[in-house]
Specification:
mainly alpha; 19 helices
């Protein structure tokens, strides 16, 4: 290779001291003025990757090189926005059914495991020569691996979208009723959540979802995060304004405001009737709790941290691309979300204790009614989840494209049809979904466990050849895989048993 050719890549010893060192920061190369002519796995600009051609005598990559265009800050916004979703609304419920100390332990463990999973995924992408989750599955286990990756990604993200749109369905009618000072629903279409979720999907979500470049959504991601920060501030402030002994009485008298007594019925079964509970018992924080609803805690936490389908697309578009830089993006995003999750769960729980519902905003509505600040929070959360849906659609569309037409040229018609189909299918699910808790639980125990624990570790074990099976890294990945299978099978079994028990007892 000539000196001129070598100088094109200009790999510093700090970034890549050896061919494929496990500690090297891969993919950190200046952008050539012209990409090398090479066949590409997928020419869809949304999915298109870049060609890494260092150490040409040792390894060839089968994906086309192109420079990233999204800054570190925008990438962190995008990743944080993917992590931060509707899951934050269920964390207080999880804490109420685990206790404060057990919840904190679970939150720390899930955060660390999620970051470790990102680390495995980025290393595997280097060794596998692809920034597409589905292609890594194909290289590792053939068509079965590709289908497993594609199915998990699609299932997880459709579940996430369903939970976001579920919030639109049930929160937007209440906001409209408050603005129009309507006390009773007389059947107007604009108070029907099914119609409203379809309208929001067509007017706001679809145009943003049709964009080809994920980086363009960095600005909406930043706005979405600001809305959730506002939600957190209000949750913290309301703790000092709501007196605990009054919560249950007021909640019972005004339960018609949110149209459900499901959680109160559950609370009565678990803790006894309100009349038999003293104020001290109702307002005393629990540190370790074990009951039939505790089984939802781990799936809810797992669901809240799933961002892995978006890791590689965000990595692909990161300016100054390197594995170290992407891990820094991940560290910043995960640490910020850890703090927000912990504070939201803690102050929400310490406000309502055992009476918190699976969706925190419902609890505030039941207690405060048409409170102006809560109304503004509802608008902020609605804006946040609405702006998050387009970001979540990107991995779904990538997965479907890779599964059925990976080698075809980009086509606007196909791009648009997939987007419309995904949105339409999700809307149908939302119209018939019974409870947001079931979404958190089922998706967190199945697809989320696959994407955080099982697939990254399995791909790493299979594709990273330079590390022997008995190495510390491989042993860690094997233990991670086993723990993921245990989490998935155990959580799914307990959730299904809870569904059977509730069905047999006449509840949901």
């Amino acid at each position: 290779m000539s000196r001129a050719e070598v100088s094109k890549f200009n790999i510093s010893p700090e970034e890549d001291s050896s061919s494929y060192s496990s500690n090297s920061n891969d993919f950190n190369y200046p952008y050539p003025t012209k990409a090398p002519a090479r066949s590409c796995v997928d020419r869809d600009p949304e999915n298109q990757n870049f060609l890494l051609e260092s150490n040409l005598g040792k390894k060839k990559y089968d994906i086309e090189y192109h420079p990233g265009t999204t800054s570190f800050g925008m990438s962190a916004f995008n990743l944080s926005n993917v992590i931060m979703g509707s899951g934050i609304l269920g964390l207080s419920y999880a804490m109420a059914n685990t206790g404060i100390i057990l919840f904190v332990i679970l939150l720390v463990v899930v955060t660390i495991f999620s970051l470790y999973s990102v680390h495995l995924l980025l290393k595997t992408a280097n060794e596998g020569g692809s920034l597409l989750y589905e292609q890594l599955g194909m290289k590792a286990f053939g068509l079965a691996g590709k289908i497993a990756a594609s199915g998990s990604i699609t299932m997880q993200n459709i579940g996430a979208m369903s939970s976001y749109l579920y919030i639109v369905k049930y929160e937007l009618p209440l906001v409209i009723k408050s603005f129009m000072n309507i006390e009773e629903n007389t059947g107007e279409w604009y108070l029907n959540g099914d119609y409203l979720v379809v309208l929001v999907s067509i007017v706001f979500i679809l145009p943003l979802s049709l964009l080809k470049n994920l980086g363009y959504l960095g600005y909406t991601s930043g706005l979405s995060l600001m809305c959730m920060v506002f939600f957190l501030i209000v949750v913290i402030c309301k703790k000092s304004q709501i007196l605990c002994p009054l919560v249950l009485e007021y909640d019972m008298m005004n339960s018609t405001l949110n149209g459900t007594l499901a959680h109160l019925a559950t609370a009565a079964r678990l803790h006894g009737t309100a009349q038999n509970m003293t104020n001290d018992e109702m307002c005393r924080p629990k540190y370790f709790v074990f009951n039939s609803q505790t089984v939802y805690a781990v799936p809810i936490l797992t669901f809240s941290f799933v961002c892995h389908p978006a890791i590689l697309p965000i990595y692909e578009e990161l300016k100054g691309r390197s594995r170290r830089r992407m891990m820094n993006v991940s560290n910043v995003s995960f640490f910020a979300m850890f703090l927000m999750y912990l504070l939201a769960a803690l102050f929400g729980y310490l406000t309502f204790y055992g009476n918190v519902e699976a969706e925190l905003l419902h609890t505030y509505s039941a207690v405060l009614g048409a409170d102006v600040i809560i109304l503004i929070v509802r608008l902020a959360v609605l804006m946040a989840v609405t702006l998050t849906v387009p970001v979540v659609i990107f991995p779904i569309r990538t997965s479907i494209t890779q599964l059925f037409c990976a080698e075809k040229e980009f086509n606007w018609l196909r791009h648009s049809l997939i987007t419309v189909f995904v949105l339409a299918f999700t809307n149908v699910l939302v119209i018939f979904v019974p409870s947001i808790r079931d979404i958190f639980g089922f998706i967190g125990a199945s697809a989320a466990a696959m994407l955080i624990f099982i697939l990254p570790s399995a791909f790493y074990i299979k594709l990273v050849k330079k590390e022997p099976l008995k190495s510390v890294q491989k042993i860690g990945a094997i233990l991670f895989l086993v723990s993921g299978m245990f989490v998935m099978i155990g959580s799914m079994t307990l959730i299904i048993l809870d569904w059977i028990h509730n069905y047999a007892s006449g509840g949901h």
